[in-house]
Amino acid sequence: MHAYCNPVSGTCECEKKYPVKLNNPYAGCSKPKRLGDQCYYKETCQYTDQHSSCIQVHHNAICQCQNGYHSVSIQKPSKRVFCAEDVVVITSDFSTFAGVLSGIAILSGLICFVLHLFNQNLYGSRHHRHRFGNANLAPPILFSSDPGMKVLLIY
User: Fold this and answer.
1) Taking a C-beta distance cutoff of 8 angstroms, is the pair 50, 63 a contact?
2) Model confidence over 76-114: pLDDT tens digits?
3) Is 28 exposed, middle or buried (0-12, 13-18, 19+ CB in 10 A)?
4) Are 15 and 3 in contact (CB under 8 A)?
5) Residue 148 class from Cβ within 10 Å (0-12 exposed, 13-18 middle, 19+ buried)?
């Protein structure tokens, strides 16, 4: 049905209004079907969406998404319905949470330990700290009380 023999190629081809070639050699060609349309062949559904199939629902068969896919409807710019792959929700258990939490705790402890070592090496031990001057204060100037010495001492 709805097929003709192309004289140039010598093969059977579908008519323009019936572009879906059916796998059943005796069925011929058919019109494509959209999701939600009544169907007889899975090829008519898959022509519009490769993840759809002709699925029996009660006494009718309807184009629906295959297992692992769900229908999605987009309203703009023009209404379009297609099958999208189901998203597997990642579930976490307590052991994963405990592992991540202990890893963070160990890393934090290691960082604190390294910073403590760096702090000790930079400033020396607690009892022998270097005394740093305050740049905001003028340096003390000492004058000699000996009249014979004309040296200005700056400390």
Assistant:
1) no
2) 777 888 899 888 766 667 888 888 999 999 999 999 988
3) middle
4) yes
5) exposed
